[in-house]
Design a protein that fits this description.
Layout lengths: L3 H45 L5 H4 L2 H13 L3 H32 L1 H16 L6 H8 L3 H25 L3 H9 L4 H39 L4 H10 L3 H29 L7
Helix pairs in contact: 3-11, 4-5, 4-7, 4-9, 4-10, 6-7, 7-9, 8-9, 9-10, 9-11, 10-11
């Protein structure tokens, strides 16, 4: 039987470690808040004292008033929800499609060798330049915007995850085969579990890429959304509206990134629900 004193000592070490980690996290949060506050104060002062042009750079209080007015009038929420839905759809479709393509390439190695140079070329192309083609092919609406986001995310997801599939330790695969495992069982029991951290990392990358694809798509064809607000603000020289839209994009994108990070934390071996 384990010594209770040893167990208590280990628990005390764990408690101290968690307390220290909590203090470090609190300190990081405070420093981040101070840095943000200092940036906002400096920005406000720079415009107030004429160091920066108010027409181009606006200032935090003016942006806050603009966002408050948009929210109070009910104008902001429909634009935010439109962009979030489009981004989420592009994010999910791009990630699932890229993972599926990576699985197919692993399953058919000859096809992977044939398609490898084409995937490299497609990855090097500026996918946002395909936006006009998507508008013609899918119509000037939500589908074209979503497909732009998918185009930005799917190829890099495929290459990243397929690269991880190929790097799985061959000994893991041999163990499953020795017990009579089929190719599907090798993939399900050895390849996929070992690749989950890479898949989660691809999710985190795709959060930013899907936002790029959607905003570019909205620049080209949208009549609603945060990208539309940016273009409209530019057309009427209302750069406060442009900066307000950018700030909303940053906040919502950070929330999406936080959700993906939470999924990553829950999948890590040391995570425990308390």
């Amino acid at each position: 039987m384990p010594d209770r004193r040893d167990t208590g000592w280990m628990r005390e070490l764990e408690r101290r470690y968690r307390a220290k980690a909590a203090r470090v996290s609190l300190l990081v949060g405070i420093l981040q808040a101070v840095l943000l506050a200092a940036f906002l104060v400096l920005w406000e002062a720079a415009v107030r004292y004429g160091w920066l042009d108010e027409l181009l750079f606006s200032h935090p209080t003016k942006i806050a008033r603009t966002l408050a007015d948009l929210a109070a009038s009910g104008t902001l929420l429909p634009h935010v929800m439109t962009t979030v839905i489009e981004t989420t759809a592009g994010f999910v479709l791009g990630t699932l499609g890229g993972t599926l393509l990576a699985a197919l390439l692993w399953w058919f190695p000859v096809a992977a060798r044939v398609l490898d140079p084409y995937l490299v070329v497609l990855n090097s192309l500026p996918k946002v330049a395909l936006g006009p083609i998507f508008i013609v092919g899918f119509g000037p609406g939500y589908l074209a915007i979503i497909m732009t986001a998918v185009a930005v995310t799917i190829i890099i997801t495929t290459l990243t995850i397929y690269g991880r599939f190929r790097e799985i330790d061959a000994n893991y695969l041999k163990v499953v085969r020795l017990f009579g495992g089929t190719r599907w069982q090798v993939f399900r029991l050895a390849v996929l579990p070992a690749s989950l951290p890479t898949i989660v990392s691809a999710l985190k990358v795709n959060v930013g890429l899907s936002w790029v694809g959607v905003i570019v798509g909205e620049f080209l064809t949208a009549k609603r959304g945060l990208g539309y607000l940016i273009i409209y603000g530019f057309q009427v020289f209302n750069f406060t509206l442009v900066l307000s839209s950018l700030i909303v994009i940053g906040v919502v994108a950070a929330l999406m990134y936080g959700l993906v990070s939470l999924v990553e934390a829950r999948m890590s071996p040391g995570y425990r629900v308390r």
